[in-house]
Design a protein that fits this description.
Elements: E1 2-4, H1 6-13, H2 19-26, E2 33-36, H3 37-44, H4 50-60, E3 64-66, H5 71-86, H6 94-106, E4 109-111, H7 115-123, E5 127-128
Parallel strand pairs: 1-2, 1-4, 2-3, 4-5
């Protein structure tokens, strides 16, 4: 499965053309896209207008959905964060470590445009899709 991070979805909904949004729009296999609860929250909280919120929610729920957190992922995320810190890598947002850990544990690829994931990919077995 391909987890599309909120960084890509936000660019997508804002009409920003990047390699990631163009891949998402034109080439990503729709039946392989996975939306998680954390990403759903990050993306939808940014909409100012109800109509745009509803349209985005409808689109996001048209893909496979899975809860990303829980005690096992939380504990492994804490371990991963500590491991990264011991290597001198500080991730700005805990939620990114949780998303990365979810992908690692479930062997999902991640499509993103967030530099924190680059650091995670370098130091942990995160599989990133590079369009």
């Amino acid at each position: 499965m391909l987890v599309v991070d909120s960084s890509v979805w936000i660019d997508y909904f804002n009409g920003k053309e990047t390699p990631q949004t163009l891949f998402l729009r034109d080439d990503a296999p729709r039946d392989q896209i996975l939306v998680g609860d954390l990403i759903l929250c990050e993306v939808l909280q940014g909409f100012k207008h109800q109509k745009h919120f509803e349209n985005a929610k409808k689109l996001l729920f048209s893909f496979a959905y899975q809860d990303m957190a829980g005690s096992k992922i939380a504990l492994k995320s804490a371990e991963n964060y500590r491991q990264l810190r011991s290597r001198g890598v500080t991730i700005r947002k805990t939620i990114d470590v949780i998303i990365a850990t979810f992908c690692i544990q479930n062997e999902h690829q991640l499509l993103h445009s967030d530099r924190d994931f680059d650091a995670i990919e370098t130091n942990l077995p995160l599989q990133v899709y590079h369009p």
